[in-house]
Specification:
Layout: E1 2-15, E2 22-24, H1 51-60, E3 64-67, E4 91-93, E5 98-100, H2 106-115, E6 119-124, H3 131-142, H4 148-155, E7 166-169, H5 184-201, E8 206-209, H6 222-231, E9 237-244, H7 251-255, H8 258-278, E10 286-294, H9 299-308, H10 324-339, E11 344-349, E12 359-361, E13 367-369, H11 373-382, E14 386-393, E15 396-397, E16 405-406, E17 408-415, E18 420-427, E19 434-441, E20 445-454, E21 473-474, E22 479-481, E23 484-489, E24 493-501
Parallel strand pairs: 1-19, 2-3, 2-11, 3-6, 6-7, 7-8, 8-9, 9-10, 10-11
Antiparallel strand pairs: 1-14, 4-5, 12-13, 14-17, 15-16, 17-18, 18-24, 19-23, 20-21, 20-24, 22-23
Helix pairs in contact: 3-4, 3-5, 5-6, 6-8, 8-10, 10-11
Length: about 500
């Protein structure tokens, strides 16, 4: 098979907001406890955080981490997590039917994010709590000193504010499973009032309003429109959530699911622009895809666990073990987010450790990289700069859900500072490799900096703590001649080609 990508230095989509490589830490399962935090572990630092996990998080390269939920946040009292640990209450977490010890709260999490070079994307509880708690936590985290909440933070050990810039106004408030679920009007009103007070407390912050918890919700699109009717002038982003599965065990259909993500983004952007037009507003609402991933491998096990051991601490919930085909889909989803970076400014892979995560840990033992770790690591560390408009001439296939699925999913990012154009590409074809030519118009191509490929595995192959075979390898087969770069993309492969160009 042959495919050709044409790009031109002058034709750009937008600059990538690094927050597109966000992830998510929820007080859920073993994400916090036994994941990032395990005081007795041999690598634990003085706060009890595992250094082996920290170094994997840094290697992944995520600059923004959503916290503390998720469904958990809709029943969370943030004040439970401050002050001396021995006084912190143990609470029933109704979202996941587990016990929350509150050993980790905002001070500990802020210290941890500093160590992993990330910022916090903080969610406030608009389920069981309201506008008062929302404005208080902004004051606690961001106000320097001289007020009740800022001085309490200082008393609790942090003289300097945490300066959290990005905030989520609740989580999935349309879902009946959510504590304090609301109608679009109810949510729109409380979100608008919370937003006003939070921004009055700190006008530097940016706010994300909840979109639908999925495009399959019966109220999808009208929820977005109603919520924005109430909040348009007070918020900056609208959220999108999606999880994919391959329950049908149909590889072609599964790898095509990034087309669903693309369509979802474009639909939500259209609703935002409809409200913009209706309000005659000059402001554009951007998108925060603050939950996306593959999630299904652990579903059956979770039902059993919750029945067998309700109210346990650190119950191993949502521990999907990802395989090679999942890594390929995650690659296609990352490319889709990049191609929409004019609208999607924030995105969070849900989640980061143990819970539907690229990083797994064993209590008292090792930490390791799942298959999905690699495309994310490649993109987060190398997909920075400006996404170029690309015209790709490529054969396509059809499957049950989609027509015209290109065999090659690809994107090119120009990093002016580094003098590099980075191309990410997934070959969805399981039978044939592809001769992939890239015509870099308007660039002076100086050579190939790197070509890394993840391929050659059984689609169901996984990584375990003792076998991390599903990992990329470097190749030297990409060639540059004049402005043309050529590489052979193996059947079913994730590829990163770094082209050196004159700055
Ligand atoms: O990421 C797991 C859960 O998925 C989150 O808690 C919730 O927001 C979503 O339904």
């Amino acid at each position: 098979m042959k495919a050709k990508m044409t790009i031109n230095r002058a034709f750009t989509i937008a600059k990538v907001d690094p927050r597109i490589y966000g992830t998510f830490v929820e007080h859920l399962g073993r994400c916090v406890y036994e994941g990032i935090y395990e005081p007795g572990h041999k690598t634990a630092n003085k706060l009890g955080f595992r250094k082996d996990v920290q170094s994997l998080v840094k290697e992944l390269g995520t600059p923004l981490i959503r916290y503390p939920g998720g469904n958990f946040v809709s029943g969370y009292n943030w004040e439970d997590g401050i002050g001396p640990k021995e006084n912190r209450p143990r609470r029933l977490d109704l979202a996941w039917k587990t016990m929350e010890t509150n050993e980790v709260g905002i001070h500990e999490f802020a210290a941890w994010t500093k160590d992993v070079n990330a910022e916090i994307n903080m969610a406030v509880n608009l389920g069981t709590k309201g506008i008062e708690e929302a404005r208080n936590i902004v004051e606690y985290c961001n106000h320097k000193s001289g007020s009740y909440w800022s001085d309490l933070r200082r008393k609790n050990g942090d003289e300097e504010p945490f300066d959290i810039k990005t905030w989520c106004l609740g989580n999935e408030m349309d879902g009946p499973w959510q504590m304090g679920a609301k109608t679009a009007d109810e949510y729109g009103r409380i979100a608008a009032e919370a937003a006003k007070m939070m921004k009055w407390t700190d006008d530097r912050i940016e706010l994300v309003a909840c979109g639908s918890s999925g495009s399959g919700m019966p109220t999808f699109a009208s929820w977005e429109a109603t919520v924005l009717e109430h909040t348009y002038e007070h918020v900056d982003y609208l959220s999108l959530h999606v999880y994919y599965d391959n329950r049908a065990n149909d590889l072609k259909g599964y790898l095509a699911k990034s087309l669903n993500m693309d369509n979802f983004i474009k639909s939500v952007a259209s609703v935002c622009d409809y409200v913009k037009a209706k309000k005659r507003s000059k402001k554009t609402i951007f998108l925060s895809f603050d939950e996306w991933n593959v999630w299904y491998h652990s579903n059956a096990q979770d039902e059993e666990l919750k029945e067998k051991d309700p109210w346990a601490e650190a119950l191993p919930l949502l521990e999907d073990v990802y395989n090679f085909e999942d890594a390929l889909l995650v690659g296609c989803l990352l490319i889709t987010l990049l191609k929409n970076c004019d609208r999607v400014k924030i995105a969070c892979l849900a989640q980061l450790v143990n819970v539907i995560a690229p990083i797994m840990t064993e209590k008292g033992g090792d930490a390791w990289r799942q298959t999905t770790f690699y495309p994310f690591m490649h993109a987060a560390n190398n997909g920075l700069g400006t996404v170029l408009t690309s015209v790709v001439d490529v054969p396509a296939y059809s499957c049950e859900e989609f027509e015209n699925v290109p065999y090659i999913e690809s994107v090119a990012v120009h990093n002016e500072e580094k003098g590099e154009v980075v191309i990410f590409a997934v070959n969805r074809n399981s039978d044939e490799s592809t001769e992939f030519d890239i015509d870099l118009q308007g660039f002076n191509v100086l050579g190939i900096n790197a070509f890394s490929e993840l391929s050659g595995h059984d689609v169901k192959a996984t990584n375990t703590k003792s076998n991390g075979n599903v990992k990329p390898r470097d190749k030297n087969t990409a060639k540059a001649q004049g402005n043309l770069v050529s590489a052979e993309l193996a059947p079913l492969s994730w590829n990163m080609i770094k082209v050196k160009v004159q700055s």
